[in-house]
């Protein structure tokens, strides 16, 4: 899908500008993600190096800008090139939602009195955090390089992180981890949920690269995922 952006529209036009803006949005999402995780997991006062709400508003403005550029381009170019533009609009919806979930993580940090202690699930949590961060890096690279194979691999790997989150969530709800306080258990369950949703939205972006437009957000169409 991504290759068609440059093949159909070339460089230095509205759609190319919209794509560059989308990558900037993802880089801002990553900055917000790293800061929110650090606030929840490694700080007792939930401080952040920037105003995450202003950063989120900036991402929203970027989303509006992308939509305007795509609409203007398609108005000029005609509907025969509509699919790449629609795919890009779909991508920025996922990017915007990721920003919302990073805000949710920040709000967990603000509500929790000290840094989160995951107890027995530290290894699981560290794995999910690391994979999610790496997925940000991979998606940004995918958009920059039009890397179809990497996008397909991201989709293929999603099941592992999704199932890991679900397993831990079910164990928390069933009271399996007696070393967790009630407050830690609630925050931890929500945190795993937010991480799972962030990873899912990143996977949706990968699907926008490898799937035809009607199947964006679904499994890789040849059954590999």
Quick summary of this structure?
The protein has 225 residues and is mainly alpha-helical.
Description:
By secondary structure, the protein is mostly helical. The protein has one domain (2-215): Methane Monooxygenase Hydroxylase, Chain G, domain 1 (Up-down Bundle), CATH 1.20.58. 76% of the residues lie in helices and 0% in strands. The protein is built from seven helices and no strands. Helix 2 runs antiparallel to helix 3 and helix 2 (14-42) packs antiparallel against helix 5. Mean pLDDT is 86; it is low at 8-12.
**Could you tell me the mean pLDDT?**
86
Distance between the termini: 17 Å
Number of helices: 7
Structural class: mainly alpha
> Which stretches of 5+ consecutive residues score pLDDT under 50?
8-12
Order of helices and strands: HHHHHHH
Instruction: Count the domains.
Output: 1
According to DSSP, the number of beta strands is 0
Major beta-sheet overview? none
């Amino acid at each position: 899908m991504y290759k068609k952006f440059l093949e159909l529209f070339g460089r230095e036009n509205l759609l190319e500008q919209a794509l560059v803006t989308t990558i900037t949005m993802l880089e801002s999402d990553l900055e917000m993600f790293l800061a929110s995780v650090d606030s929840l997991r490694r700080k007792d006062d939930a401080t952040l190096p920037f105003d995450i709400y202003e950063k989120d508003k900036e991402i929203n403005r970027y989303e509006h800008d992308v939509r305007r550029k795509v609409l203007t381009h398609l108005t000029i170019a005609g509907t025969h090139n509509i699919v790449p533009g629609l795919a890009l609009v779909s991508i920025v919806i996922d990017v915007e939602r990721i920003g919302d979930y990073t805000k949710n993580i920040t709000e967990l940090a603000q509500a929790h009195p000290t840094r989160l202690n995951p107890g027995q699930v530290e290894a699981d949590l560290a794995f999910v955090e690391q994979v999610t961060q790496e997925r940000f890096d991979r998606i940004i690279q995918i958009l920059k390089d039009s890397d179809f194979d990497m996008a397909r691999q991201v989709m293929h790997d999603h099941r592992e992180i999704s199932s890991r989150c679900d397993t831990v969530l079910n164990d928390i709800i069933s009271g399996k981890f007696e070393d967790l306080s009630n407050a830690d258990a609630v925050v931890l369950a929500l945190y795993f949920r937010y991480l799972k949703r962030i990873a899912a939205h990143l996977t949706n972006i990968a699907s926008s690269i490898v799937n035809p437009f009607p199947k964006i957000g679904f499994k890789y169409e040849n059954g590999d995922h």
